């Protein structure tokens, strides 16, 4: 992908060696939090990107943030603003999203490949284990990493994702992604309106400033015009969905978190993660912390004080 709204994700050199990571100069994100953008190579040679809000207290477990299906690390700017002063916070753009390079043939947009990319990122950054915060697709990738490399996942925070996914919610996502088009809105006010039209029912209480922030995290700026910030091929996995399908069972990957501290955040208005699924998850994983974000749907924005306070309490309780 190309330049972000702030341009900070492109202000760096390319990785010089497949084993290395290339850091750009320290910058501030849209909320004023200091970070260093970085890049590294995937196993198949794509240049992947992220932000490192470090160094934090080395005695505390780093927090690794993984975004949703078509989203990017900008979604975690409120999280970094809250925690980066004391704890290392790293966010990744999954392949084909944000500042990460797209697959030339549209392949590799699956949780297994993305989990391998994440593990490679941890290796490059010298992070042996982290607390994972995964929104939607990022939560699925978190569970897969815990199956593949359980020693890398110290704890998991699943944001509006869990052991089962409701089909009607996925179809709604497919429909509004199809309506986004490849060129994007004509200008930023139109981008804000397009964002509200797509997900306004899931976030009925956002004010004008919040919608502006939301839009700026979804779209990227190209010469003053908003454009989509992901490879359209990312969404092809949703093409085959039909309303008569049963919920998607992720019980196997969720079982990979057994024995680990887990927190599940659900939007009260979510059509992806049902309240019944959260109840079932809590029965399968005794001790799981559950949080419901009032008046938000898929996926909670992780910027309100009560939700951030709950995340802080969970992280503070980890055996660092």
| Rg over CA atoms | 18 Å
Arithmetic mean of pLDDT: 93
List how many beta strands DSSP finds: 14
SS-based class: alpha/beta
Q: What is the N-to-C succession of helices and strands?
A: EEEEEHEHEHEEHHHEEEHEHEH
Helix content: 25-40%
Number of domains: 2
Number of helical elements: 9
Shape: globular
The proportion of residues in beta strands is 15-25%
Name given to the CATH architecture of the largest domain = 3-Layer(aba) Sandwich
- What is the CATH T-level topology of the largest domain? Rossmann fold
Protein name: AB hydrolase-1 domain-containing protein
Domain AB hydrolase-1: 63-305
Pfam families: Abhydrolase_6
InterPro entries: AB_hydrolase_1, AB_hydrolase_fold, Carboxylesterase_BioH
What does this structure look like?
The chain contains 9 helices and 14 strands. By secondary structure, the protein is an alpha/beta fold. Strands 1, 2, 3, 4, 5, 6, 7, 8, 13 and 14 form a 10-stranded mixed beta sheet that branches. Helix 2 crosses helix 3 and helix 5 packs across helix 6 (208-218). The protein starts with 20 loop residues before the first strand and ends with a helix.
